[in-house]
Amino acid sequence: MVFGVSWEAMIRIHRWLGYLFLALGIAHVICMEMAIAEQGYAMPQNIFKIPLDYHADNFTIPLMFLAFVALLITQGILSLEIVRRRMYEVFYYAHHMALVFFVVMLWHANMAWYYVIGGLALWVVDRGVRMFRNLSNVNVLDAECLDGGIVKLSYLAESGGAGPLKGEETPMQHRAGQFIYLNVPAISTLQWHPFTISSAPSDNATTNHIKNMGPGTFTDSLYQMVHTLSQAGLAHQLAINVDGPYGLPVEFGKYTHILFVAGGIGVTPLHSCFRELYVNVLEGTGRLSGLASVKLVWAARDMGVFTAFKDTLSAVKANPGYRIFSYDLFLTENKDVLKAAPEKSPHGSQLTTTAGRPDINGMISDLQEFGKKALVFACGPAKMQKECQQLSMTYGVDYHGETFEL
């Protein structure tokens, strides 16, 4: 927040700097090998000879070389997206090899601390603060399995998640659209997974809506556990830990027209923002007096997903504030056999949906006349977000997107 850059955006910058660091490291090794070769030592044999003849009295040279090879594996190969997305824990804990590398580097080049001490100090402080906040007691009020393979967690945190300060249990101290890291000790004491806070900051409890992503995943284990506990009437006994909140909130006060575009369970950060804006206008806080239109466009394959937030959607439809707030639900599954006319949800929620996909181009083009006073906020499949971003640039309106690919 100091630099006005979101946490997930900083992750992208972190990757770029990491690649640059590895490239410079490789360049350093190549230059060193060329210097060794110029002094008559054969290549590539000298790379694998331990101890090296070159500066044989300096044991940190071969030690540093081995540490750098390990770094290439742990920070390079194991950081590739195919590994990170399928084996996150392998990637995460292997990433800590960097700490060993920095210790060896400071030993090898004793002047290196000038360049790394600042970053390492900030990292230590950050980890300390996160560990302290992780110790907050979390009181699970309810855990339930909803239609569409969704788990809903409702909870309060000691001191709002600020740490074990013996304060009152309250909702997380967050702003609309932020996320937390969730740990379920009964599944794994080491796994922490990011999930958006789906409730509004003004709600009486913090909620997460988590989609079951299939067998072998953390979300499937959570779904099965909650299902079992719910059947036994023990859902409130689920033990969880939370770390957060994270993410840079959007400043909605400078916009008059807001279009939220969601795909599937990507609606969670948008619902948090949509609901908070609705509550603020309903209660007449005055902070959003210039707001003229807020629309949620939500497309999903399963009708059951829409019912996860039926309370908010039904309230918006029933309230006179509906003239400012509106929503359109699109059911994309089996669109060839569904009628084009709107239909009611079979789950008894009285939510009206339209078969097919939304006309995103038409909706964003309608905002063109409002320029930078209009915002498109999207979260969902990468293809959908890219389309929203490109159309926003074409029509000259602001764009903000959320991603879970950390």
Written description of the protein model:
InterPro entries: FAD-bd_8, FAD-bd_FR_type, Fe3_Rdtase_TM_dom, Fe_red_NAD-bd_6, FNR_nucleotide-bd, RBOH/FRE, Riboflavin_synthase-like_b-brl. Keywords: Membrane, Oxidoreductase, Transmembrane, Transmembrane helix. Residues 127-252 form the FAD-binding FR-type domain. Pfam families: FAD_binding_8, Ferric_reduct, NAD_binding_6. This is FAD-binding FR-type domain-containing protein. The protein is of the alpha/beta class and 406 residues long. It has three domains: 7-133, no CATH class; 139-246, Translation factors (Elongation Factor Tu (Ef-tu), domain 3, Beta Barrel), CATH 2.40.30; 257-402, Rossmann fold (3-Layer(aba) Sandwich), CATH 3.40.50.80. It has helices spanning 7-38, 45-48, 60-76, 81-86, 88-94, 97-108, 113-134, 218-231, 267-283, 303-306, 310-318, 360-365, 382-395, and strands spanning 138-146, 150-158, 169-170, 179-183, 193-196, 206-211, 241-246, 257-263, 293-300, 325-331, 343-344, 352-355, 374-379, 398-402. Strands 11-12-10-9-8-13-14 form a seven-stranded mixed beta sheet, sandwiched between helices. Strands 1, 2, 3 and 6 form a four-stranded antiparallel beta sheet that branches. Helix 9 (267-283) links the parallel strand 8 (257-263) and strand 9 (293-300). Helix 1 packs antiparallel against helix 3 (60-76) and helix 3 (60-76) packs antiparallel against helix 6. The longest helix is centred in the N-terminal third of the chain and has 32 residues, at 7-38.
